[in-house]
Design brief:
By secondary structure, the chain is α/β, with parallel strands linked by helices. Helix content is 45%, strand content 10%. Strands 4-5-6-7-8-9 form a 6-stranded parallel sheet. The two termini are 13 Å apart.
């Protein structure tokens, strides 16, 4: 079985985006009426996925995708907690409906209603709802709700602990995933996302989070950002900061995905990072779309790259299926 652990509903019907636009318009002009979530038919959901993510999943040999709302659309920089709660709920309900249409191919992961410097209470409530009521298997956690200005405390700060306690209780991981960039210095896809992946990893090195939460699990997407390429730097910094070796201090709880869009990058990822810490993913129809003119294949056809890595059958099974099921035990339970 081949499970893609990183998929977003980037092809949601236009009416869903129109609801968000109406929300933002009302925040600018409170005299406008409170908008209601869009009325979207099952047929619209089916068409939007069957001709896009599902079509490519099948063509590329995949079986299932861990599916969450569009990351760039989470919009956590909008400093209105009530609007963030309503938007997250609408996004997650839409994911739930998509999963119901394709239960053999999609499994839900939720967006959290984060806001800059807001307490995590609303995120805990929405996580509980999505896991207990909707059958979701994880969440996406934004380490920078400010949108590129990094006003939040590091992930190791105690202000995050109530959310981590709930994640441990529910036995669900979080994918560390930022949303839009409001800072013109940082292109969202080319800089902000990779910056966040790398920054989150360094925060984890500096702290002792996993001593407090030994079963907490994070997936750092996009191949771990710059981390594998600078692995020696992070090993050296851990030593300089009197942290334990990375395999003890961080890598029992942190996993990287394969959203790396060239063969050399995938080869490096597997040379540097232990195979038990790598989860197959493509983020297809996400940041990097289209065809690589050098290869003639889609940039985000990451299975093609992984297939070319010299792995045993046992290790390929780990990357394509078993590691994902281990990190997302609620997915494993549903498959069983």
């Amino acid at each position: 079985m081949i499970i893609d652990c990183h998929g977003h509903y980037t092809t949601a019907p236009d009416a869903h985006t129109a609801f968000r636009d109406a929300q933002l318009a009302r925040l600018a002009d409170p005299s406008l009426p409170e908008p209601e979530p869009a009325e979207i038919s099952d047929d619209e959901i089916v068409e939007s996925i069957e001709t896009n993510q599902l079509k490519l999943l099948r063509e590329r040999g995949g079986d299932m995708m861990v599916f969450s709302p569009r990351a760039a659309g989470m919009g956590h920089h909008i400093a209105d907690p009530a609007a963030s709660r309503a938007w997250a709920r609408a996004c997650n309900d839409l994911i739930h409906r998509a999963v119901r249409q394709f239960p053999k191919h999609l499994i839900g992961v939720c967006q959290l209603p984060q806001s800059p410097n807001a307490p995590v209470n609303s995120s805990i409530e929405e996580l509980e709802r999505c896991v207990n009521d909707l059958g979701f298997v994880g969440c996406n956690l934004n380490p920078d709700p400010s949108g590129g200005y990094w006003t939040s405390q590091p992930l190791t700060d105690e202000s995050w602990y109530p959310l981590y306690e709930k994640m441990v209780e529910l036995d669900v991981p979080a994918m560390i995933h930022v949303s839009a960039s409001c800072n013109p210095n940082f292109h969202a896809l080319g800089a902000h996302y990779i910056n966040a992946d790398t920054t989150a990893f360094m925060q984890l090195i500096q702290g002792d989070l996993f001593s407090e939460f030994p079963t907490l699990r994070f997936v750092i997407p996009h191949g771990g950002g710059a981390v594998p390429y600078h692995w020696g730097r992070y090993r050296g910094l851990a030593d300089r900061l009197n942290r334990p070796p990375l395999d003890e201090h961080v890598m029992r709880n942190v996993f990287f995905d394969t959203c790396v869009y060239h063969q050399a990058g995938i080869d490096l990822l597997f040379r540097v990072i232990d195979v038990d810490n790598i989860l197959f993913a493509s983020e297809m129809l996400g940041a990097v779309r289209g065809i690589d003119p050098e290869t003639g294949f889609h940039w985000d056809d990451t299975k093609r790259y992984v297939d070319r890595v010299d792995l045993s059958d046992e290790n390929k099974k780990k990357v394509f299926e078993l590691n994902v099921r281990r990190v997302y035990p609620r997915l494993d339970a549903q498959l069983k």
